[in-house]
Every structure is written in C-alpha cells, then in structure tokens.
Amino acid sequence: RFADALGRFAGVRTALELGPAGVLSALAQEQVDGLVAVPALRSGHREAETLLRVVARAHVRGAEVDWPAVTGAGNRVQLPTYPFQRTRYWSDPPAPDATAAPAPAVSPAESRFWAAVDDGDVESLAATAGLDPAALEPLLPALSAWHSDARAYETVGAWRYRIAWKPLEEPSTASCAGRWLLVATDDADATVDACRAALTERQGDVDLLLVDPSHTDAEEFADLLRDYVVPGERLRGVVSLLALDETPHPDHPVLTAGLAGTLCLLHAALDVDPGPLWTLTAGAVGAGEDEAPTSAAQAAVWGLGRVAALEHPRHWGGLVDLPADGLGDDPGLAARLAATLTRTDGEDQVAVRAEATLGRRLRHADPVPPRPGTGWTPDGTVLITGGTGAIGGHVARWLATEGAEHLVLLSRRGPDAPGARDLTGELTALGARVTVVACDLQDRDDVGRVLDALAADGVTVRTVMHTAGLGVLAPLADTGVADLAHLVGGKVAGARHLDELLDPTRLDAVVHFSSIAATWGVGQHGGYAAGNAYLDALAQQRSREGAPVLSVAWGPWDGGGMVDQAAVQPMLRRGISLLQPGPALVALRQALEAREPSTAAAQVDWERFEPSFTALRPSPLLAELPEVRALTPAGVTAAPDTVQDGFRGRLAGLSPVERERAALELVRTHAAVALGHARAEDIEPERTFRDLGADSLTAVALRDGLASASGLTLPATLVFDQPTPVALAEHLLGLLMPEDTVDDLPSADDLDRLEAALARRSGDDLDRVRIVMRLESLLATARSGTGTGTASAESAALADRLGDATDDELFDLVERDLGLK
User: Fold this and answer.
1) What is the pTM of this model?
2) Which of 27, 139, 299, 482 is most buried as measured by Cβ atoms within 10 A of its Cβ?
3) What is the domain partition of the chain in residue ranges?
C-alpha cells in the first residue's frame, strides 16, 4: 500500500524516513513531485553524521529545530575561516529574478481602512479616513461587498487561461528524406496531391494508402499498414488526412467518419509501430484574433490528439491545421506543411497559414474587474442541461440567488433523478420557478419536443447552461468507436441540437461547460477531450457569427460531478486542485462578463504540474506561461530552454576533446555533491557509481542536479543505465549534440600532443601498464575498422582479465601481447 500512502502526501514538502536505509525516500521523491525525503539512517554512513544531515536539511526546508537539544547547551564552535580552509562549503543563495515584477506595496493606512470596512467598524473607518461616521455608515455595506468581490476576482482571475497562437520560425530548407505514408480517403483531393508533391520535392519517398474510414476497423488498418512497413524499420512519418472526412459514421452518427477513422488508425499504429502519426485538419482551429474555427467536427480530432500525445508519445507525431479550403494550389502552404512535419523543436500543435506557421500557446486570460450592479444577470428563463447533476445543481442555485425567474432543468430521468425533488425545493425557496423535464439530448426530436412545449406555454429560453456530460475514464488504447460515441454523445449531440433549434437572436447567453482535457490534454480522457473540443470550437464559431455563445473549459470541481474519487489524490499530487463551487461560479461570472468565446478555469500548481506533464514529451503549449518559464526540470528558477541552449552553446564553442572534458566535469561535479565529496576530483571517471557509494537516493539527487544544469529531462534510472561518470558524460553529449555522436578521428596534432604527454608521464609501473593496455585496445579497434563485434568483445574480455590480475600478471600479459615473451 506504499503508493496509497504516498497519495496522502498532498501538500507535504518534507518527509523523514525512519528506517535502516534510504530506499523509501528515493521512491517517495520519484512519485511525489516537489517532495524532499531524507532518511535518518543510511548504510555505510556514520549514524551521528547522517542524523545531523537530516536535521540540517529539515531546517533549511523551514522546519523548526530545537538546536540546544541537538548540539547540547553551550556546545558551540567557531566556523573555520576561508583563508586557512580553502574550500567553501556553504550554499549560494538563489539569484533574484530580475524579470519578476515587484509585489504591490500596501500602506498601513490602506490596510487599516479595509480592515475597518470588513469588520463593519464605522468609528475606526471614520478615524482612518477623517470623515463623519454618520456619512460613512450607509456606504459600509457597498464598500464591504466591493472589497470582497475584488479579492475574489483577483484570486479567481489567476485561474483563468486562454489559447493564443505564436508565429514560429521557419527553416530555410526542410529535407523530407525518408519513407512517408499518406493515409487519405480520396486521391483526387487537391490537398492530397499538394501534400504528396511537397514531400516528394524534398527528397521524400511517398506512398499513398486510400481507405474508407466508415468501414475500416483497427485490425484492417493494421493489416494495411503492415504492407508499407519493413519489420524493424520505422517510416519517417505517417500523415493522416482522414479527419477531413466529415460524413456521419453509419453506425454512430454523433461521430464523423474522420474522427472514428483517426481513432482506428491510432490503434493500428500502436500495434504495427509504423512511425510517428501526424493528423491534418482544415479549419479546426482559429489561429489568430481575426480567425475562428469553421469545423467543430474536425476540432474534436484535436481533443483526441492532445490526449494521444500524452498517452503514446512515441507513436504520436502531432496535429497540423490547414486553412478551411486545404492546401489548394499554394506552393508556399505546401512548403510550410513539409517543414512542419520535419520540425525537431517539439512543436506538435501547429496551424499552417498563408502568412505564417503558428504554434498553439496557453496564456493567462485578461483580468476582469468587478462591476457590482452592472455585470451580467440572468433574465427570464434559463435552461440547464444536466440540471439535476452535481454541477448543474450548483449552477442552478447560483442562478436562483442572482435573480433567475424560471429554471428549466433537463436530465435523462427528469423528476425521477436522484435529488431532483430536494433541489427543486431549494431553488423554489430562493425565489425561482422550477421545471424539471426528462430529455435525451442525443435525440433531436426529444429536444425539439421539450422546446416546443415550453414555447406553447409562452416560455422563451433566454440563457442556456450546457453542463451535461459523461466523465468516464478510459485510455485511448482501450476506447473503441462505440465507446467514443458513448462518451461524446451528450456533449456533442446536445450542443448541436440546441444550436440548431434555438433562435440565437432571442438568446442572452449560451455557456458550454467544457474541460481542460480539451485545452491541454489529460490522460485517460481521450473521448471526453474530443467532445469538449467540439464545444470549444462551436462556441468560437458562433461567437464570430455574432451569437452570444461561449465555452469555459473547467478543471475538476469539488462537491460531486464527474470526478472519479480514485483520481483525486493523483490529481492533487500532480498539482491540479479541485475547484470549490463558490470560486468556480465567480470564474463563471467573469467569463460571462468578459464574453471571451473560449477560456479555461483551473487551479494549477505549475511547479508540480509542468514536470509531470512534460516528463515523457516536451510541451511548447505551456512554454510562455510565466510560472513555467520560471522552472527547470529540477524546479530551480530558470527557463529550461534557456538552460539547455546555454549549455549546448558552451559545448558548441569547444573542440570534441574539450566537449568531452566539459561534460565529464559537469557529471563529476554533480556526483561529488550527491555523494558528499568536497571536490569533483574525488570522483574517479572510470569507477562505477555503485562502487563510489551511490544508492537509489543519491541516484535521484544526481539526476536532479544534472537535469537542472543541462535543461534535459532525464530518467530516474540514469545512473544505473550509465554506470560510470565517463559513460554518463558521453550519454549527455549524445542528447545535447546528437549531430556529434560520431566524432572525427584525432588529427596529427592531437597524436603529437598525446605522444608528448606520454613522454612526460610520471608514475609507477602499474600506471604505465594501464596506459599501454588502453592503447592496445584502441589499436585493436582501429585495425578491425569497427567499434563493435570482435574487437569490442576482445576489449571486454581483456578488461575482465585486467580486473582481477596482480601486478606480476599484468606485466606478464603486456610482454606476451607485445611479443616480448
């Protein structure tokens, strides 16, 4: 039950392990983001010293320590002075963030003023403001209400986000060399021809697979893919144009053939592993201030793809949106598409337009100032889908308190739904007239029947709150086409039917309750994300046409709703907090007053969330949030891209030999810190980390240090996968500078310097023997012309023989190998 116990660690930042080793501390730090766990005992370490280290680490984390009890009363020593000690042991304080804005100063007088307002203390308020108490007393309720609203608006405003699009740098040339597979429904489509031509013109070898996504299941897709894939060899990419097919699926009309086909193609790709799967759409997103989606149906594919990127990072390439009319005959568009498919910067949500290539970004929404008495208020009849559910009930209560005259609550079971009678009584007591109606949102005739009955009674629907939804968790690999239709049914069909049957000119507001699963993706929410992405795009589309439609992508709500209780603790550990209904409804008011077509509202601890979200796949989507820019993979204040580019830039200015030395110096320095050594020189380059004393806890510490210094995302098993400092340094070089993984042979000047160094070499005979044996191994590899196979096997065998040899045996071995015996 260790994982269950860790699930209770939400909010805990420092933990003490009482046990004989540090194994649990290492496991806990790996599972709980931001946690520092320290063991009281460690094998091979002196007990008193280890315990003092524990106390010290707890102290610097903010824990209160009874130092006299630790050190003994009066038992104090003077710290050594640096001129004699030579070594500095004390941590440097973090550098101040020069880009951070200073916190606004609040004067004491201002604090006293608002404290008196909140306390209703007229006398203190009058004394602070220098005014007549009698004149202030009538204003006190209004002042208190404004101050309370202002604080709530500021707090909740930080939870609101929106999507923006950033122009991306485009490479001057893009080589598409390699084998590509286009998957399409019609070879006569101009977009198919343009895409094929763009890849071919850039040295790509392109095959075309034509399918009917309405009648092709995952197994059939897999069989078709196998015809184009050589076992053990991946394609450069699989480019799917299936999403462009918006015809209704014959068995599940709530889905398009393109959405169903994309899901089946993904299943096939998981089975066959042909190469990264890129999905093209046309008009699925509004990339810019003056552009809105033209196809909500294709936007659903984007919701599905964002989750696919999280669940299957190896198999998923990305999403690329083309203009609504496709590539047409514009060669510039085709060139941008080809360049996008070969990007190496992690951009996987891209819009290709005639003017530029744009990348999708998450940003904070613009603040909305409180406007008591002048903001949005409900008028007339409000229709709430899912009205008897938990979220629908919260919204209905809020609307009743805001003065809604008539609330129409739709649900599948209507008056027979659990809690419907009690909810009706609450709302009636708040002054609203309540009508509870059974309605199947997926049945257009049933929705029409309800609206016609309301109209016959003289009721005009002025506001719609579309809260209905089905929050069933399921990974995409286990989600079939029928499952997908079931998951998106209420969301998509309900929004579509209300959009078709209600007169937009008679509406004050339509609010779609969407999900952050559609905004940035959430694992096991593939179908749910697809349905909500449809809602977001429909709201943007209708808003652009002038209708009062908007969508709010919510984080998980507390107090019921569609949150699986088993998922609560994992969400908290990853930095996603449950929204309390009160603040969530403040965010709803802000959305209604701002009238932004699509926003998100979620309470996120980015220091915890970003590392877990990007652990397996980088996410440029989050890169421009100030909270994310201030993080590195180890949680240190700095931008990860800046750190990585800075270290890579330093390496780029060095020779190959100097690069190896710099990488090794980096590894030895952080290994010394993790293992408790005073100097990097104490870490022997060829000695295994295990022999140096590394255990699971120090392995995690070393990984974190290297990740912080390099800007790389590194696995917890790094030290065990690369067992020596030399091997680890070579591995880091390969990640940072993959183009230099095969180095040039040493020049004549390099060999001259080596010869001079050997001539000056001093030391005992055994030291010279090791040098001779290393050179013999290099000569064997050079003669064979390869670093693998026989030569490397012989080198490995020779290393085994040297490991246990005595001095006399080493000399005997050298003389025989050199032909002297």
Assistant:
1) 0.68
2) 299
3) 2-73, 108-157, 167-360, 381-554+556-601, 640-740, 749-817
